[in-house]
Every structure is written in structure tokens, then in C-alpha cells.
Amino acid sequence: MSKIDELESLFLKLIDLEGHTSLTLYFNQEAYNYMKVKDYGEEEERFAEWINEKEKQKGQETNRCWTLQWYPSTPIGFEAVRASSLSALVSYVKKITSAACPASSAPST
């Protein structure tokens, strides 16, 4: 299985967890407002949480923010997380999907 196929499988597993219907991956999504990652305010922080403080600090220092957002099959709400790198974001998704699906080969939390 190629790396892209593995990533697709992981993201589909995340969507399938609780009947989610769509998933969006962003890179520096606030840049369209001419904002740097370090300038994200409370409004942007409320939209998506960083996976941890270390990733937040690294994202602010490097001006890199990967955001993964997924929607349930209801008209209200969504889930979203941020990380400074795609690999950190993917590692986090592996942890949450393996915690929800213990038979998975991904590392558990």
C-alpha cells in the first residue's frame, strides 16, 4: 500500500468513527486574511485546538499550521485539530482512531 493510500485509509477511518460525512485538510488557512500563525487570536483558537502546546509553539515559530476538520452527519458542529506539521497531525489522528478502534495496528494513546 502506498503512503497516499495509507493516508486515505486513515482519514476514512476517522470519518467512519461516528458517522462523519466530510473531512477537510487546510494549510495556513488564516493566511488569506494576511495573518501569521503567531497572530491567531481567540476566535481562531476556538475554531480548532492545537494537538498540544509544543505543536502550538512550533507552529507559531515556523508560521506553519495544518488543520484537519471533520463534520458529523448532523447539521450542527464539527471537530478540528491543528499541528505544526502534517506528520504530527497524522500521528495524532492515528492515536485517536486506534483508541476508538482497538483492533487497529496504529499506536494507542
Describe it.
There is one protein chain. This protein has helices at about 5-15, 40-45, 55-60, 85-100; strands at about 20-25, 50, 65-70, 80-85. The protein is an alpha+beta fold and about 110 residues long. It has one domain (about 5-100). The chain has a 4-stranded mixed β-sheet with strand order 1-3-4-2. A hairpin with a 6-residue loop joins strand 3 (about 65-70) and strand 4 (about 80-85). About 20% of the residues are buried.
Offer a few descriptive terms.
single chain, 109 residues, alpha+beta, 4 helices, 4 strands, globular, disordered C terminus
Oligomeric status: single chain
What kind of sheet is the major sheet? 4 strands, mixed
N-to-C series of helices and strands: HEHEHEEH
How many distinct domains? 1
Q: Write down the Rg.
A: 14 Å
**How confident overall, as mean pLDDT?**
82
Task: Give a brief rundown of this model.
This protein has helices at residues 3-16, 42-47, 53-62, 86-100; strands spanning 20-27, 49-50, 66-72, 79-83. The protein has 109 residues and is an alpha+beta fold. It has one domain (3-100).
Furnish the topology, listing elements before pairings.
Blueprint: H1 3-16, E1 20-27, H2 42-47, E2 49-50, H3 53-62, E3 66-72, E4 79-83, H4 86-100
